[in-house]
Design a protein that fits this description.
4 copies of one chain form a homotetramer. By secondary structure, chain A is α/β, with parallel strands linked by helices. The first copy, chain A, has 2 domains: about 5-165, NAD(P)-binding Rossmann-like Domain (Rossmann fold); about 170-290, N-(1-d-carboxylethyl)-l-norvaline Dehydrogenase, domain 2. Helix content of chain A is about 55%, strand content about 15%. In chain A, the strands form 2 sheets. Chain A has a 6-stranded parallel β-sheet, with helices on both faces. The longest helix of chain A is centred in the middle third of the chain and has 31 residues, at about 165-195. The mean pLDDT of chain A is about 95. The interface between A and B is large, with 63 and 63 residues. Chains A, B, C, D: This is 3-hydroxyisobutyrate dehydrogenase. Chains A, B, C, D: Belongs to the HIBADH-related family. Chains A, B, C, D: Keywords: NAD, Oxidoreductase, Signal.
Amino acid sequence: MGRMRIGFIGLGNMGSAMAANLLTAGHEVTAYNRTQDKVDAVAARGARPARTVAEACDADVVVTMLANDEAVEAVTFGEDGIVASLRPSAVHVSSSTISLALAERLTAAHADAGQRFVSAPVFGRPEAAAAANLFVVAAGAPGDVTELEPVFEAIGQRTFVVGTEPKAANLVKVSGNFLIASVIESLGEAMALVAKGGVDTGEYLELLTSTLFDAPVYRTYGGLVARRDFEPAGFAATGGLKDVRLTLEAGESLQVPLPIASLLRDRFLTLLATGGGHLDWSAIGALSAWEAGGPGPTA
Amino acid sequence: MGRMRIGFIGLGNMGSAMAANLLTAGHEVTAYNRTQDKVDAVAARGARPARTVAEACDADVVVTMLANDEAVEAVTFGEDGIVASLRPSAVHVSSSTISLALAERLTAAHADAGQRFVSAPVFGRPEAAAAANLFVVAAGAPGDVTELEPVFEAIGQRTFVVGTEPKAANLVKVSGNFLIASVIESLGEAMALVAKGGVDTGEYLELLTSTLFDAPVYRTYGGLVARRDFEPAGFAATGGLKDVRLTLEAGESLQVPLPIASLLRDRFLTLLATGGGHLDWSAIGALSAWEAGGPGPTA
Amino acid sequence: MGRMRIGFIGLGNMGSAMAANLLTAGHEVTAYNRTQDKVDAVAARGARPARTVAEACDADVVVTMLANDEAVEAVTFGEDGIVASLRPSAVHVSSSTISLALAERLTAAHADAGQRFVSAPVFGRPEAAAAANLFVVAAGAPGDVTELEPVFEAIGQRTFVVGTEPKAANLVKVSGNFLIASVIESLGEAMALVAKGGVDTGEYLELLTSTLFDAPVYRTYGGLVARRDFEPAGFAATGGLKDVRLTLEAGESLQVPLPIASLLRDRFLTLLATGGGHLDWSAIGALSAWEAGGPGPTA
Amino acid sequence: MGRMRIGFIGLGNMGSAMAANLLTAGHEVTAYNRTQDKVDAVAARGARPARTVAEACDADVVVTMLANDEAVEAVTFGEDGIVASLRPSAVHVSSSTISLALAERLTAAHADAGQRFVSAPVFGRPEAAAAANLFVVAAGAPGDVTELEPVFEAIGQRTFVVGTEPKAANLVKVSGNFLIASVIESLGEAMALVAKGGVDTGEYLELLTSTLFDAPVYRTYGGLVARRDFEPAGFAATGGLKDVRLTLEAGESLQVPLPIASLLRDRFLTLLATGGGHLDWSAIGALSAWEAGGPGPTA
């Protein structure tokens, strides 16, 4: 494809890094963020600053990387939104973790406007985004997904195509975050148990990750739980609650009971209600120890 | 240490392989099993057959690898049991997955008899036992554990020493099996969800194990769940229930609530009550799909 | 207060009975339903038939008794809705089981239009509605609630005023339905247990309801579960799921983890996914027996 | 039957009151307790003091009312225990809340000794015991149960015969305590929710107990939770944990998954681990409010 003209909307920890990597890969990037200071930082790395969503839509591809459904809706719909601003046949790539219901609505709205829509949420924390090491989960019309390969290659280490309906990618994404949270919770329980039985949790984690549990998810989150390293948040508990809620909503819509997801929802609510909403989502891994008589996540 | 004289009690799938590897490593092995046919098979590979527990105790080290607390109690206590038969200063190595309460009782009984006791449960399925690729989790008096290194090296790829009280190894073992079961359950939920949403579970698992979940536990158990490959059992559901029960007992004794372990207990009971007690324990991973309107584990 | 002019919108099992009792009490009732046949039945008992929502709003009080948020929104907002049609200072009484979020929105919309809004959901199954034996849970401005006493007296046996913000009544209502569902589930578990132990569930229920559990909720729902009497539904499982969802949404909004509500949600999803969405909501009480190897709710 | 000769073993809050009521009813009572001061108090009301279990067994009927399996085993088995001391054809009535496994063992042991055994656990708190208002749940050979009617009438307001195998009564008893605990937990969740939503929990409870939840279990336990009245304990949390454990053990033995019982076990463990083991078991009803950011049960 060569150099692509890309609008980038949403310059948080993740989005800024992704936009920077698109620039590094040689693409032309027009960057927009609700607050201007984030735009300046990316502009300093070579992006064209956009003062409105519409300006960012003067592109072949517009990528959105925002916190939740509401934020995506705010930039997509309405008079100056993406649907109203994007030229026919241009593509909206949604990398945000959004609900399946919104993915369906975006698919329909862009189709109605003669535009294209691809869901491409990513796995990886801000460090991985900075290193262009994200995993991209994409779904959409096959031709569209192929055309976007240069975008995905610029931000990630590998792309998985999981379906032709965009919402399939969102389902895989929320279920993946559910699996991460389930690892945090089960490690939290196991560590609370062995710690009270006199075993060092750092050595315990070393044993786990040297054997059957030799995976990044155990090393990363197990380390955060073992060290009680919850601040600053790589991904905040409020975001974790959102993703578990999206998983449960998908489960309700598809009629799939998800008892561990139900438990995780209660865990995140406990964490928020006791003052830990700003902590990294791995802080739910400290709740078992708290219930077992130890210090709480915010201690 | 050179050649050791080892009694081996318990020649199931795991024990037979472990005894064979001790022979391969050059040790002298006297093998006992409640049913004689298993003994013959190991004798054919060079072991001395024992007709009684006491005969197997004519050794420096006696290893027990049995199904549960009851089986270990049956060979350990009583007139012709290990405690009565083992010579002073010899070591009983328990590789079975037993309760912490029994580990405490064995520690005391052997100490009273002037003998030594080390807990050394193992992680790995029968294939790993056959390949001498087990992970050994050992706890006991430091000198005892060091002395047993040749035994552990013969059966496993790596040994983790987790404490000086034998029961610490049993705690780590049961908590590890709890973590495996929690992976099975959470994968079962996630796969039921994405499958009903039209995503191929094999490709989904490939995505998971290529990214954050790149660990043997996800590849092995995820594959069994995705393929619904529950027979023959590598480790039966009845054994899974036992290990979750041991985890919950440890949690009760140490006053640690373990909500995921509680859920797993209910899952295993459902599996047993609906006719799946003989299936591999990974079959609990099919219960979410069943509850979501799909076929049950035994279908 | 004398004779009141009342519009009544929503003539299902519950609404028809309530409208009839308002007529019996001497009030003038204009009745509206989305499908006309229900209107004819109430008209035969003396109500004035309305062909539009607006016609039903030619009244001092308009009562809505509808299935869910969507149905209430459909008749309330828009060009010909209640807000647009009701005269200033008239009152909208919402007896539907709706979300707290919608109650807030209704409160604001009617206030903006110079109208009044009171939440007055009811407890009771269709038999109780027919007998004017409902319990009314009301919340709103004190003067408004007092003024509505004749309405509440016509449909119920007792009114409880739980707050001055309308949504408080909705919170009490959804939490009450949550408590009923929790009774169904716990009875389902206990009955599955004692039945498998050889105890007759009918006698067991007689014992319970003769002692500490001597309450209508145990007699009614315990009887349905013991007799597996799930058709026709007095209140369908889909409605039960809705109310548990509203409870969980309230819990999320107020940051209160609700583990039993989470379990109930999974139970209702299992019931729906296995073909029981049309059954009475008490059918979740058959799921424990099913998981214990017995027949499912639809058997 | 007239005056019976009754040995009574176990003079705690419950047992003392029951023994006193047997005296009031005109029976001859020989009372034993592990600590002598309790015996003196009952002797002052007319009982013959026993210094040993064997002395208390010089009777037609010996009733045991003890804290748990261990306490019942301690007085039943061994050289000077009930089995060894009771005359042929005399009856041991166990009113303690014990496991089904122990009930089976007692049934067999007394049969082997030519004696009879009846399980007759009771429902009711110490106030009910004092007022002879207990509910007796009896199971055993029909003739034996009939013969014991005067005993049951002296201590309770009504007797329910639930089977001919003694353990059936224990199953009903533990399942009943499970149901009580499930009421406490669900009320705890509902009250935490409505309280955070601004509704007064006392008025909320009044509403519940005036309507569908008009039962002693809601009035008694709802009042304790609403008032946070957990000390002194009528029935301690440690006892609640024991009874939930017995329920879960029965469920495991009968292969019945019991998700609410699993949750309750975790609740009691949390309560114990955070210092509330001495509180009334209704204190688990304060855990939801604690998790929702409020004060803990011991605050």
